[in-house]
Amino acid sequence: MSHTKKKRRPPLDINETGAEIFQDGRCPHSRFCGGCIYQGEPYEQQLKAKESETRTLFEKAGIQPADFAPIEGCPEHSRLAYRNKMEYTFGDLVKGGPMTLGMHRRKMFMSVVTTDQCQLVSPDFNRILDYTLAFCRTRGYVKYDKKSHEGLLRNLVIRRGVHTNELLLNIVTSTSEPGFDEEAWVSGLLSLKLEDRIVGILHTFNDSMADAVKCDDMKTLFGKDYYNERIMGLHFTVHEYAFFQTNIEAVERLYAHALSLIDDVDGKNVFDLYCGTGTITQVLARSAKHVLGVEIVPESVEAARTNAALNGLTNCEFVCGDVFRVLEEREEKPDVIVVDPPRVGMSREAVEKIAGYGVDQIVYISCNPKTLVQNLAQYQELGYTVSYVKPFDNFPMTRHVECVVLMSHISGR
């Protein structure tokens, strides 16, 4: 039996930043950018792969849910251009080559690919990136070097209100000389023909040695330092450094499904742990007696409080701090618990503290199935059974999978 090796379809062209033009609809950055591992695969195959990987993780961890529902994908119209935030990095594709602006190259963290034709963002993101890179090249600005810690340009951050069509832009530089020409950059941005409207332009100064977007100081160059968004019938102001969900349409479906698993919250005391900017907290507060939201990021907690007031909700409370430490200091007991931890999952001490309340239902929303199954195994040791699991594909083309899980206390089975 003979096997014929499948030939890779050659690109029509390639430019100095690593972009290619393909005939089959693939992203022109797919050779170098590590963001979309499923480029070119039929969407149904992507879903099958993600569901299979998730089921395998559960099996290896010895977790057998009473009901493992099929993965829910995104509708066809929202499988591309769904990201509402991007943090781009200034760099170069090859050492000493032309300056680039975009994403880190796959398996080569010191190399940056200019992603000015990315398919996961709205066209406005690509237009703003393209303009900013041309602006900085024309003026001879130098990228920040992660080894020598010299140079001016570090990042460009773009955020978007999907339901409000608002854009918030942020250039991140060091304080080295020559300084960044803020007035000229803003003037050029405001003259761009965009589908959405720019409501804020910021300049963040970052001299930290860490390769991350950090803020030593920030100036508002135009408009305001936040954008507005609507989600699940609620209004939110999202400040530059506050966390907010990346795919709005998908997370609305996920949250609605997750909260539908709770038997009843009317008149009950609810804990929403790792609450971010408090979206779930506020949805629950519309029917619960009281909702406590706990989040460790100060900017997110401040935003949650502002948004609760904006939505006229007085029965939700937000506390900033580590979940375990905050709960150790609280005397009230919850009737229902919702957890939505970051990718690292929950600490063992937090799991033990939460399980110790013995509530009938815990809803776990996860953005990382690997740490999810670790936590679920711990909960099973502490008297809980996994009643229901459903994966969600909120990030088509990428490797990421979200999961909604309902845990039930064995005493209430």
Automatic annotation (TrEMBL):
A single BP term in Gene Ontology: rRNA base methylation
Xref: Gene3D superfamilies: 2.40.50.1070, Vaccinia Virus protein VP39
Annotated binding of S-adenosyl-L-methionine, by residue: Q245, Y274, E295, D340
A GO term for molecular function: rRNA (uridine-C5-)-methyltransferase activity
InterPro entries associated with the record: MeTrfase_TrmA_AS (IPR030390), MeTrfase_TrmA_CS (IPR030391), SAM-dependent_MTases_sf (IPR029063), U5_MeTrfase_fam (IPR010280)
Alphabetically ordered keywords of this record: Methyltransferase, S-adenosyl-L-methionine, Transferase
Active site residues according to the UniProt entry: C367 (nucleophile), C367
Family: Belongs to the class I-like SAM-binding methyltransferase superfamily. RNA M5U methyltransferase family.
The protein's name in its UniProt record: 23S rRNA m(5)U-1939 methyltransferase
Organism: Eubacterium pyruvativorans
